[in-house]
Design a protein that fits this description.
heterotrimer; A mainly alpha (about 300); B alpha/beta (about 325); C alpha/beta (about 280); B: about 325 residues; alpha/beta; 2 domains; 8-stranded mixed sheet; 4-stranded antiparallel sheet; about 25% strand; globular
Chain lengths: ~300, ~325, ~280
């Protein structure tokens, strides 16, 4: 019951597009991820990646800028394979071009499915509360407490040939509880907003309110959950592949690492076998992580009140 | 004369977090006539029950006892279709003009929602209806395409009234509609209420703690204290010649440019009251023992009703 | 650009023997926005005298709170003081360094900000919060008996019983919390108290009690009070003089009775007539 009048034209301003302090994480993350996406698009649709398969070229060729060492069995670069070739004759550049899009797609698809499930759960639980929330909460907590990676190991050791989308969907199964929880918390806050009451007064049903009033205001949060899930899924899939599970004939960053491990690349000093996929993965994680932080800052409630 | 809305013996109790029982509404009676359209103010301090009463009338909060009857039909007995009709005919405007608009949309959003959800008219007519409503509240229809942050609190609040008007309600419950609006803009909102009453025949229940705005715009004033109605009569009479001791204290304490406060006010109450007795007992200058024991009933006294054992006139009329 | 547009309403000419508690001349505040600098306060002059209350009224955004914050050095970025003097006890507050200003706060000028009662520390007892305004060595020099007595006497000036010092903020009502804030402001016997909407969230009767308290403190300690608000009726009860602000300028300044009942400047006339008053204009059916 306050009388405070807050009509001051000086304190009210437009949504935070005109911020003085730049959101560096968002900028860095966006640039990195955009670069990776472009790289992937090139690799998936334009480049010739036949070189990514076994036996496409002479094995053990060093990268273009390294001197050959025939004594150990490392051959000189023939000028057509910039990053050299691995122990089985795969061109490393082609491996990257072929593998990156696959890893990104698994991550994105899995995260997308996970977010959808998480949204359905979170919206329903958060908006309706009561016993609905309790029941859904139990399901959520159960999924959270199941050791995802262990189960995935078991699953993938049974299903020997998985295509990307199947892998992504399985990942989604374990990816949704985290976002669901975060979404629910946000819905709990948003449903108390006066405009939800106004919508109810205007005759909107519960579903309509969830769709029209609550969901649009959640976009920044969902974006954060998405990038977070995506990096988590890529990490999990890469881990599984590195362990030798979730194998598919198709090259990915994880399988490249797995091949390198199998070929004892570390011990034999064939650093250009394991380094490129690792570096690229690091870039993927840094990009997604920065993007997550940047989006999180954008979605910060402090900024929300300024709208 | 049939009543538009009749609240009879409304009682609401609920448990406070610490386990005690809060008696938010104590046997509240309120009647709003079908005609002529009236602006009734329900005034009181925080904790007086005025907001709980508003929520009960809007069907947002169930009563513990008593009844609310709209056009002769009790709210709790309404079927789904009648409930929907009720929801359309009894609208509300809330206190917060800032949170009332979803920042994601332009301000036309809640107005469009209302038109669409209640199927008021075919799509083609929506624009004209909204422009009409916006003009009624004194704004330019161009304002509909703005975003909430581009408008002042006063403008947003007037748009909330426009939204209510779109549904052609019979009754609008306005809960502190001006308290978050700049003082110099309040009159424009009061004018909207007045115009809706005079030109469109819409009655209002105006909830407020601000007696100045109540004095300016309302026909009738209901004063509540600790869940009970203590005085109910024509606004000018109640404000200029209050009868209930609490009303008297209140009216003399409202700061006015015309006169000074009469003397020093005592800070603490001398007596301790009981939950069943009159809510003003602890600082009432004319309290009787009966006031401590039970709550005085609301009784006719001249041009109004007063709930006070010590009130001369009502005692005289009771004896007659 | 510091003279008000209406030549008749200048600063109130008081007997030359009286020295103002707060003397402000040519105060200018500028906000450095991305779109360019905006003048929020355009060179205002006013004075607050000991034992008297000066009211500031105006619409939201007119600069009344900004002026108060500027005097205390509490402007938040991107606002800054662009000129003027604010003299208390012979010292220009606007020329002080940050450390000097920190010492001047509470000691020379105290502030009761908007919503003060909600900014009391919820985890600290009232008595301890009141003593917080003292520097740590001053506190050490006082015995428990002395500090208790001091706290109780201050609580008494705001009509609060001594046992309040042992309570937490949530155990007090809104009016009581606000009176605690008034007590806190007067702890170090400042020359000036700036009160920004001190009763805006309170019920009518409680508001009267708090207003009465403020008046009593002012009369008893001869502190000068700058009262910012929008409730004209309240100004009529409390203020000796009233200044009407519009868009960063004072358009009228004079005795309360004069300004509120017979305003001369067109904007004052408009403002005063547009605010609903009990006993004023009614819209008959």
């Amino acid at each position: 019951m306050t009388n405070t009048s807050t009509d001051s034209t000086l304190t009210q301003r437009a949504p935070s597009r005109v911020r003085r302090n730049r959101n560096w994480p968002l900028i860095v993350g966006a640039v990195l991820v955009a670069g990776l996406v472009l790289f992937s698009l090139y690799g998936a649709f334009i480049a010739n990646t036949k070189g990514a398969y076994v036996g496409s070229a002479r094995p053990f060729m060093v990268p273009a800028w390294v001197a050959a060492n025939p004594a150990v069995g490392f051959f000189a670069n023939d000028g057509k394979h910039f990053l050299g070739t691995d122990g089985q004759g795969r061109d490393m550049v082609a491996v990257l071009l072929a593998g990156t899009p696959r890893s990104l797609v698994v991550g994105a698809f899995g995260a997308l499915v996970g977010i959808f499930i998480g949204l359905a759960f979170g919206l329903t639980a958060g908006y309706f509360g009561g016993w609905v929330d309790n029941v859904l909460g139990i399901a959520n907590d159960v999924m959270l407490s199941i050791p995802g990676l262990a189960v995935l190991v078991v699953i993938s050791s049974y299903l020997t040939q998985l295509d990307l989308l199947q892998l992504g969907a399985i990942m989604a199964l374990f990816a949704w509880p985290g976002p669901a929880r975060m979404i629910r918390a946000q819905v709990l806050t948003l449903r108390e907003r006066p405009y939800v009451d106004v919508a109810r007064l205007s005759g909107s049903s519960a579903t309509r309110i969830m769709w029209t009033e609550i969901l649009p205001n959640m976009v920044p949060f969902v974006a954060v959950a998405f990038t977070q899930s995506m990096s988590g899924i890529i990490l999990a899939v890469t881990g599984l592949e590195a362990l030798g599970l979730a194998q598919s004939r198709l090259p990915s960053l994880g399988s490249a690492i797995s091949n390198a491990l199998e070929g004892s690349a570390l011990f034999r000093g064939i650093w250009w076998w394991w380094a490129p996929p690792v570096v690229l993965l690091v870039l993927v994680f840094i990009g997604l992580f920065a993007l997550t932080i940047g989006l999180d800052r954008y979605a910060d409630p402090r900024l929300k009140d300024a709208r | 004369m049939t009543a538009l809305l009749e609240v009879h013996g409304a009682d609401k109790r609920y448990a406070a977090p610490d386990g005690s029982v809060v008696h938010a509404l104590r046997s509240v009676d309120l009647s709003i006539p079908d005609a002529p359209p009236t602006i009734v103010t329900v005034a009181g301090e925080s904790g007086s029950g005025k907001t709980t009463l508003a929520q009960a009338i809007l069907g947002l909060v169930p009563l513990s006892g008593g009844s609310i009857t709209y056009r002769g039909r009790e709210l709790s007995t309404l079927d789904a279709a009648s409930r929907r009709k009720y929801r359309r005919e009894v609208q509300a405007v809330f206190q917060d003009p800032y949170g009332a608009f979803n920042p994601f949309y332009k301000v036309r959003h809640p107005l469009e929602l209302s038109l669409r959800n209640f199927r008021v008219a075919p799509r083609a007519e929506h624009a004209a209806l909204m422009a009409d409503a916006v003009k009624l509240v004194g704004l330019d229809p161009a304002v509909l395409d703005k975003h909430p942050h581009q408008l002042s609190g006063g403008q947003r609040q007037r748009l909330m009234f426009a939204r209510a008007y779109l549904l052609r309600p019979r009754l609008v419950v306005a809960d502190e509609p001006v308290s978050m609006v700049d003082a110099s803009l309040r009159r424009s909102i009061l004018d909207v209420m007045r115009r809706m009453r005079d030109e469109e025949g819409i009655s209002f229940i105006y909830i407020t703690h601000d007696l100045a705005t109540a004095y300016e715009v309302s026909d009738r004033l209901l004063l509540m204290l600790k869940g009970a109605v203590v005085e109910d009569g024509p606004t000018a009479s109640v404000v200029e010649r209050p009868q209930h001791p609490y009303a008297r204290l209140l009216m003399e304490s409202v700061p006015s440019v015309e006169r000074r406060w009469p003397g020093r006010i005592e800070v603490t109450g001398a007596r301790v009251g009981t939950p069943e007795g009159c809510g003003f007992y602890h600082r009432c200058p004319v309290a009787l023992d009966a006031c401590r024991a039970t709550m005085p009933p609301l009784e006719k006294s001249g041009d109004r009703r007063v709930a006070c054992y010590a009130d001369e006139q009502s005692r005289q009329e009771g004896a007659a | 650009m510091s003279a008000p547009t209406n030549p008749a309403s200048t600063r109130v000419r008081t007997p030359s023997a009286r020295v103002p508690a707060l003397d402000v001349t040519g105060l200018r505040v500028v906000y450095d926005l991305p779109s360019g600098p905006v003048e929020a306060v355009k060179g205002i002059d006013f004075a607050v005298y000991p034992g008297e209350i000066l009211g500031f009224v105006g619409e939201s955004g007119c600069g009344k709170t900004t002026s108060a914050m500027a005097i205390l050095g509490l402007l938040s970025h991107p606002g800054r003081v662009a000129g003027g003097r604010a003299i208390v006890n012979g010292v220009d507050l606007l020329s002080l360094s940050t450390t000097e200003l920190r010492r001047a706060r509470w000691r020379s000028v105290a502030l009761i900000p908007q919503g003060a009662m909600n900014s009391l520390n919820p985890t600290m007892k009232i008595g301890r919060q009141l003593l917080e305004v003292f520097s740590s060595d001053a506190l050490r020099r006082m015995s428990k008996a002395e500090s208790d007595a001091l706290v109780e006497s201050r609580l008494d000036t705001v009509s609060l019983p001594p046992h309040v010092k042992g309570l937490y903020p949530h155990e007090l009502s809104g009016g009581m919390k606000q009176r605690v804030c008034i007590a806190m402001a007067s702890m170090l016997d400042p020359q000036v108290i700036i009160a920004d909407e001190p009763t805006s969230a309170l019920d009518v009767v409680v508001q009267r009690v708090v207003a009465q308290t403020l008046l009593e403190v002012c009369e008893r300690t001869k502190v000068g009070v700058l009262l910012i608000g929008h409730d004209l009726g309240l100004m009529a009860q409390l203020a000796n003089n009233v200044a009407v602000m519009k868009d960063g300028e004072i358009v009228e300044l004079g005795a309360t009775d004069q300004v509120l009942r017979r305003p001369t400047h067109p904007y004052s006339q408009h403002l005063i007539s547009s605010i609903p008053q009990v006993g004023g204009h009614r819209s008959e059916q």
